[in-house]
Amino acid sequence: MSNGKESESFPLAQTNFENLYLAFWPKIHRYVTRLVGSQDAEDLTQEIFIKVEQAAATFRSESKLSTWIYRIATNAVTIDKMRSASHSRVNKKTIIAVINLVSNFLRY
């Protein structure tokens, strides 16, 4: 897997995961960094490659390997952002509830 063209021509089952990781990690990390920022990119990139390895048997070669990996990355980022948004809403609701509780308590 010395260049991107070679990595696209082999089914994932035949690809050495270490070579795949080394070839795609910088690209996926850069992509994820642009989407979520550098603070979360490292962990999320690692999670993406865990998912790639776990899902390797499902790759059907109907698209390029890179397209498939980027789709996994995009889905992981989307799920991560949804979790963050959900967590933020819970925190805001909790803060408002605490403020209301304290306000009610102070009135009496």
Automatic annotation (TrEMBL):
It comes from Sporomusa silvacetica DSM 10669. Residues 20-83 form the RNA polymerase sigma-70 region domain. InterPro entries: RNA_pol_sigma-70-like, RNA_pol_sigma-70_dom, RNA_pol_sigma70_r2, RNA_pol_sigma_r2. Pfam families: Sigma70_r2. The keyword Transmembrane helix does not apply. Keywords: DNA-binding, Sigma factor, Transcription, Transcription regulation. The keyword Transcription regulation applies. This is RNA polymerase sigma-70 region 2 domain-containing protein.
